[in-house]
């Protein structure tokens, strides 16, 4: 605990060093398509993903930086999937950024820095490290959102994201400072011990907890802290929207686990009540507001709000009457849900990017009209993603929802049973707008000026792999679920 143990930071050190190298190499690149920058970024990400995967399989929990950083299976799993998300995002985005005057070294370096911030967050064992990672990721996301400087919509989205993001970061920082004042420590494990012994002022703890949960709710995009999400999803370049929808969600889940479960489990009775309110509000607002959307990116934004609400229900079912026996099941279900949601949303936004062309953003639902006639395989892949988000068997979204409902029902609490019923009913509302997208693709006539789909072969192949993953993990979810369960059990044990 008291040694530096640089070994735990090897993936992050490699990522930081290579990001600097890529930034310097890009200065001397004359290729307008930035092929060298792109491939250097992808090779770096593959190496980082391999390091995290190897460490995750190894299963050890190591501490470093005087105990401020922990490298355990949970952190490695989240970092691995975040890295894979960035790999897919950069691959999907290459044709898109080339036609949007975004083919710059900054796009790649800022994407890598946002990933570095996420990796720092999910491996944090100290309040300051969490905040350091959060700001590194957030500042990179703000800059990426405004990368199209001459595009008014992107600039407006970046301003909203920055202002509201700074407010949420302030909430989180204020809550952490109150926790420090009440417990006398910034170390998450020490905070857990002090709260467990009842040595801290309960009123100060609960007051600080309100600010922490509010900050986390913003990062998740949970209602009523969701006001930034539709505007940022819509206004940001689609490639950046995909980063926000994947990397930031995994990072938010990581710090929620570190703070609420590993540090503040003694206050579970308080924060679980808050999460239940946030979950219900998110399910209601997200699903009903999505019905009125005509823009596909805004629809997916409200969909994300509803999906986060579903995941929060699992986080709120970990401690029952002071008993933590159901914790591993509930938290592993929440982790599985978040990973599979990111997997599905990667593909959905990938289709949106593949349909765009020079001077045209294919982001309205009506732009998908007759897609089956123009590109049957792309319509089929998009239908897979929509059905998965709706929770239709045998796709992975169905099993994710089922695992959350099972986590709620097995607690045998009347409140959790009613929450499960409400979640199912609200999911039926959500199924309407997902099926509407499928209906437009298969039954509406294409516009007279609709263009033929001619995407790059590599991007189309990646999209096919993404769709296959959604189907395969739905048919055979056991391996991924076991991986999530092992990561949660090891994290709780440390």
Oligomer: single chain
Mean pLDDT: 88
- Considering DSSP H and I runs of 4 or more, what fraction of the residues is helical? over 70%
The run of helices and strands is HHEEHHHHHHHHHHHHHHHHH
Total tally of structural domains:
1
Helices, by number, come to 19
Strand content: under 5%
Described by strand count, sense and barrel closure, the largest sheet is: 2 strands, antiparallel
Overall body shape: globular
| Class based on secondary structure composition and strand pairing | mainly alpha
Q: Rg from C-alpha positions?
A: 22 Å
Strand numbers in spatial order across the main sheet = 1-2
| Through-space gap between termini | 12 Å
Uncertain segments: none
Number of strands: 2
Give an overview of the whole structure.
The chain has helices spanning 10-27, 35-58, 73-98, 105-122, 127-145, 152-183, 188-196, 202-220, 229-235, 238-263, 268-291, 296-315, 327-355, 371-374, 376-390, 396-409, 414-443, 457-475, 478-493, and strands spanning 62-64, 69-71. The protein has 494 residues and is mostly helical. Strands 1-2 form a two-stranded antiparallel sheet. The radius of gyration is 22 Å and the shape is globular. It starts with 9 loop residues before the first helix and ends with a helix. The mean pLDDT is 88.
């Amino acid at each position: 605990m008291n040694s530096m143990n640089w070994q735990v930071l090897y993936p992050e050190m490699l990522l930081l060093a290579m990001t600097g190298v890529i930034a310097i190499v890009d200065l001397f690149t004359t290729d307008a398509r930035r092929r060298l920058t792109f491939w250097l970024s992808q090779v770096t990400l593959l190496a980082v993903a391999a390091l995290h995967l190897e460490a995750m399989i190894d299963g050890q929990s190591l501490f470093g930086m005087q105990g401020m950083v922990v490298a355990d299976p949970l952190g490695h799993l989240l970092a691995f999937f975040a890295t894979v998300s960035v790999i897919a995002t950069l691959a999907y985005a290459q044709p898109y950024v080339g036609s949007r005057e975004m083919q710059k070294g900054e796009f790649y370096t800022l994407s890598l820095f946002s990933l570095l911030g996420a990796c720092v967050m999910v491996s944090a064992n100290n309040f300051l490290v969490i905040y350091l990672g959060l700001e590194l990721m957030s500042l990179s996301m703000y800059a990426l959102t405004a990368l199209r400087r001459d595009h008014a919509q992107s600039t407006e989205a970046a301003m909203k994201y920055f202002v509201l993001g700074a407010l949420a970061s302030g909430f989180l920082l204020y809550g952490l400072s109150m926790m420090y004042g009440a417990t006398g420590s910034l170390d998450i494990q020490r905070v857990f011990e002090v709260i467990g012994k009842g040595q801290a002022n309960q009123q100060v703890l609960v007051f600080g907890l309100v600010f922490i949960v509010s900050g986390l709710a913003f990062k998740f995009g949970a209602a009523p802290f969701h006001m930034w999400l539709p505007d940022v999803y819509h206004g940001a370049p689609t490639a950046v929207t995909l980063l926000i929808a994947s990397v930031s969600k995994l990072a938010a889940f990581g710090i929620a686990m570190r703070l609420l479960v590993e540090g503040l489990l003694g206050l579970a009775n308080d924060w679980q009540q808050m999460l239940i309110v946030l979950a219900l509000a998110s399910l209601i607002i997200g699903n009903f507001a999505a019905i009125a959307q005509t823009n596909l990116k805004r629809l997916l934004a409200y969909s994300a709000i509803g999906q986060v609400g579903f995941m929060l229900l699992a986080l709120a079912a970990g401690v029952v009457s002071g008993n933590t026996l159901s914790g591993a099941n509930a938290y592993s279900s929440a982790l599985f849900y978040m990973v599979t949601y990111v997997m599905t949303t990667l593909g959905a936004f990938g289709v949106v990017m593949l349909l765009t062309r020079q001077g045209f953003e294919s982001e309205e639902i009506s732009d998908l009209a007759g897609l089956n006639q123009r590109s049957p395989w792309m319509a089929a892949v998009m239908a897979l993603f929509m059905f998965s988000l709706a929770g239709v068997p045998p796709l992975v979204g169905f099993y994710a929802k089922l695992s959350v409902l099972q986590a709620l029902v097995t607690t045998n609490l009347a409140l959790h049973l009613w929450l499960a019923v409400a979640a199912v009913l609200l999911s039926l509302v959500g199924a309407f707008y997902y099926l509407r997208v499928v209906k437009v693709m298969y039954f509406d006539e294409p516009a007279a000026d609709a263009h033929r789909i001619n995407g790059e072969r590599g991007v189309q192949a990646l999209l096919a792999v993404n769709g296959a993953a959604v189907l395969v993990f739905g048919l055979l979810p056991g391996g991924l679920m076991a991986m999530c369960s092992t990561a949660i059990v090891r994290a709780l044990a440390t």
